[in-house]
Design a protein that fits this description.
The chain is mostly helical. Helix content is 49%, strand content 9%. Strand 2 and strand 3 form a beta hairpin. Helix 7 packs across helix 9.
């Protein structure tokens, strides 16, 4: 296997002579006579790293357990970085706070990323992909986030450890096929595709994901292989009415949510079909906020009921927004704002972001001479698009109505 020169450790053994661009050899297997690299040789390799051929900064080493264990620490850095993003809760609520979820999820992840075959596949796609560093990093960060979220969701739904392992593996592998497609190698962008072309791409992507898993030759039981294949082959377009593959539904919704609210190499989003139910495909064709995404899923939950509703309800609870399962929440929110006689009521945070609105303020309260009998002299700081903070006064009438709505007392 090829290893980045930054990740070499003493003891790794060459399986390929190290050739330089000038046509000479830096080190050969014959010179080492089966011995592993030492610190002196590693420093020499790194010195000439950019001159190595056929791929700079990469050398071929023997794929043994010691090597894979060393490379696991590299992947652990990616996982730790993504976990920090989730637990710091700067972008979205930390969904790992409840019921010791973080400990339970990390226990499953520890098992998965200790599997030598998983280490090999993830490392190879992370550092030896033709797509280049930037899109690769974004896709793999999404895969780690989707794994954390889907595992947390499945734990909340009472899944077994065996089932969780299959789900976590599928999550980590589900987008690796993207890295070898033309859309991630500079030939063409997903953002240039028509709706029909994008739907065709999604179908091919699911098939390619399943094929890549099959070709990876990861050693698992036939049942686990079958479950992972089902998730990979239908993770964007599952049959919502199907009752026998709950893991596929769990991953579909977790993946859809993270894809819609996170940074990815492409602007277009395809978690919903363009023609899907009441237009969410058209509305969510670009990156969106968590609140509207969960609100759209709540509509789907009520439409389908059963297992779909169970999974989506658990998802809204994970993010601390069970209020969104109220089918009238969005319309009730609009009614609160529209009630204002001066058309100046505004929500904080706004309803298109990653947190539920918790206050109502008056946008005209900074105007000289403006008065309203519902305005109270309690200030709220609101961040503007340019990052500055401005003070506004709250609304004494609509603020309590919003509070009652969030507490489920008003529709």
């Amino acid at each position: 296997m090829f290893v980045h020169t930054d990740h070499l450790v003493p003891g790794m053994r060459l399986n390929k002579d190290i050739e330089l661009r000038a046509g000479s050899y830096l080190i050969t297997q014959r010179e080492l006579a089966g011995k592993g690299l030492d610190e002196r040789l590693i420093q020499s390799i790194r010195k000439f790293s950019d001159q190595i051929v056929p791929v700079s900064h990469r050398i071929g080493v023997k794929e043994d357990l010691d090597t894979l264990r060393s490379l696991r620490t590299v992947l652990q850095h990616d996982l730790d970085r993504v976990l920090k993003q989730v637990t710091e809760a700067k972008e979205t609520p930390n969904y790992l706070l409840q019921d010791e979820l973080e400990e339970k999820v990390l226990r499953v992840m520890e098992t998965i990323v200790s599997n030598p075959d998983i280490i090999r596949v993830l490392y190879d796609n992370r550092f030896n992909s033709p797509a280049g560093q930037s899109p690769t990093a974004l896709v793999l960060e999404h895969s780690f986030r989707a794994a954390l979220l889907s595992l947390a969701l499945a734990i909340r739904l009472g899944s077994t450890t065996f089932s969780l392992t299959s789900l976590g593996m599928a999550a980590l592998l589900h987008d690796l096929s993207l890295l070898s497609t033309p859309f991630f190698s500079g030939e063409r962008s997903l953002d240039e595709l028509s709706h029909e072309e994008l739907e065709s791409f999604v179908t091919r992507h699911q098939i390619q994901s399943a094929l890549l898993f099959t070709e990876s030759d990861i050693r698992l039981s036939p049942y686990q292989k079958g479950e992972i294949l089902h998730i990979l082959a239908s993770h964007h377009r599952p049959l919502l009415e199907e009752r026998t593959h709950r893991n596929t539904l769990v991953f579909h919704f977790a993946d859809l949510v993270d894809e819609l609210i996170s940074d990815l190499p492409h602007s277009v989003r395809y978690g919903f079909r363009a023609d899907q139910e009441a237009g969410p495909g058209r509305r969510f064709s670009r990156r969106s906020g968590l609140v509207p995404v969960l609100g759209a899923l709540a509509v789907i939950a009520h439409r389908h009921g059963g297992q779909v509703r169970q999974v989506i309800a658990a998802l809204t609870e994970l993010f601390g927004m069970p209020e969104l399962m109220n089918t009238d929440y969005a319309s009730s929110l609009r009614a609160i704002v529209d009630w204002c006689p001066y058309d100046s009521a505004a929500l904080w945070p706004d309803s298109e972001g990653n947190s539920l609105p918790r206050a109502v303020y008056c946008r005209r309260s900074r105007e000289d001479g403006f008065s309203c009998r519902y305005m109270v002299f309690t200030r709220i700081e609101v961040q503007q698009p340019d990052g500055t903070l401005l003070d506004y006064f709250k609304c004494a009438e609509l603020g309590p109505r919003l509070q009652r709505l969030n507490e489920g007392q008003e529709s």
